[in-house]
DNA sequence: CTTGATCCTGACCTTTTGGTCAATATTTCC
DNA sequence: GGAAATATTGACCAAAAGGTCAGGATCAAG
């Protein structure tokens, strides 16, 4: 629909669109769509407001571009699940990767959190479309593993939800996590251990059963 | 600090403040603080904008009142954990109660989600104060149970985080959950089963170990 | 039924903010 | 080096939104 990756783009365009999206990521993830202002984005990008509007026609367009651009990065780890791998290892690796994404890309996590909280006005088609299909693929793999008795029988879709919820929680609610833990804690390091144990115990197929 | 539960309050005051807070809950939980407008709140409450401002001095005050008022409701279930009860039952009951809160009070869940996402500007003292103490109390109970070998050894604080994350996910990300599941699913009914199984398997102390 | 307190509102003010535009600067490319 | 394309901005606009206020309506109490 929207023009994307135009073949022709000057270096200046490339650089400035980059700067704008980077600034917008900070602004939107900190304040939500309504809370962020074009002025904030412009300042973060080191550009003037009209100049920002020169590259993106509207605040909405910046937001939409940002979301669609980052969606691939965000969903990539799920594609990393190897259907031929050892089931438990594959799931645990996915969990670990997602947790690291929360640690390394908390702004992205919050950006999506805001969007979905709001009712996903810019992502609704994607949620029921591409995302759903991607989940369905993964669910098929998980279901097969369960069928083969190599993974404890759990609802695969809710398994995926729980991975998302548990890992993104540490980015989206970081303030709360840190406040409750108090100083002297590394939330992500602790979470890594906790979550590995959680999913291992839930999904392991005990010999004696 | 702020005047609360003044002994004297006319029926009109009582009713209108109620209406305003109810309308504000809808507005704030749907759009976040910045996204909600006093006009929206006024309309939802069936009052004029100046009239809303007559009862609450500012938008900020409405928000703060709402948060502090609802916090008790929101945290109450944690106090329901009985230190003398059967450990696993107590935890599972807490999980189930929290999940029902997400189902029955999704607006409240989203209200807090927005607030924490934003960095909890109106709750920061509470997070590191009352909430933390409340968590510490519960952690003490859980730690004792683990010590007594009646619960599998897990980090109690992260156990609490995981309960929050997993239950509130169904309210905060409801759009996503429904989009991915597609029609013909009852997210909460399925979650109830899934989560009970999850926590049971994680926390159960197997005999043969 | 009167009077003081409470309640309510239309009109208005100010700030913020998304967005426009004409004019100017800069870059590109022949 | 100069024309055409591209990039940039100060000034401005209109709408949205938080908040004020004087005055009128309504209610409670004696």
From TrEMBL, chains A, B:
Identify the SUPFAM superfamilies for this entry: Homeodomain-like, Tetracyclin repressor-like, C-terminal domain
Residue ranges of the DNA-binding region? 37-56
| InterPro entries recorded | Homeodomain-like_sf, HTH-type_TetR-like_transc_reg, HTH_TetR, Tet_transcr_reg_TetR-rel_C_sf, Tscrpt_reg_YcdC_C
Superkingdom classification of source: Bacteria
- HTH tetR-type domain sequence ranges: 14-74
Recorded hits in PROSITE patterns, A to Z, give: HTH_TETR_2
UniProt keyword terms in alphabetical order: DNA-binding
UniProt cross-references to PANTHER family, sorted A to Z: HTH-TYPE TRANSCRIPTIONAL REGULATOR RUTR
Put simply, this protein is called TetR family transcriptional regulator C-terminal domain-containing protein
Protein source organism: Paracoccus spongiarum
């Amino acid at each position: 629909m929207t023009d994307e990756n135009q073949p022709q783009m000057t270096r200046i365009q490339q650089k400035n669109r980059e700067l704008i999206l980077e600034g917008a990521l900070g602004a939107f993830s900190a304040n939500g769509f309504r809370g962020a202002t074009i002025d904030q984005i412009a300042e973060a990008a080191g550009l003037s407001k009209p100049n920002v509007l020169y590259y993106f026609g509207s605040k909405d367009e910046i937001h939409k571009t940002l979301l669609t651009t980052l969606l691939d990065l965000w969903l990539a780890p799920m594609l990393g699940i190897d259907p031929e791998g050892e089931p438990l290892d594959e799931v645990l690796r996915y969990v670990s990767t997602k947790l690291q994404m929360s640690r390394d890309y908390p702004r992205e996590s919050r950006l999506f959190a805001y969007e979905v909280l709001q009712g996903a006005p810019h992502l609704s088609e994607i949620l029921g479309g591409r995302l759903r299909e991607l989940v369905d693929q993964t669910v098929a793999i998980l279901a097969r593993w369960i069928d083969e008795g190599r993974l404890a029988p759990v609802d695969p879709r809710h398994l995926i939800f729980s991975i998302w919820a548990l890992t993104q929680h540490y980015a989206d609610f970081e303030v709360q996590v840190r406040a409750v833990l108090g100083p002297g804690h590394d939330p992500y390091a602790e979470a890594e251990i906790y979550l590995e144990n959680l999913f291992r115990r839930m999904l392991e197929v005990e010999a004696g059963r």
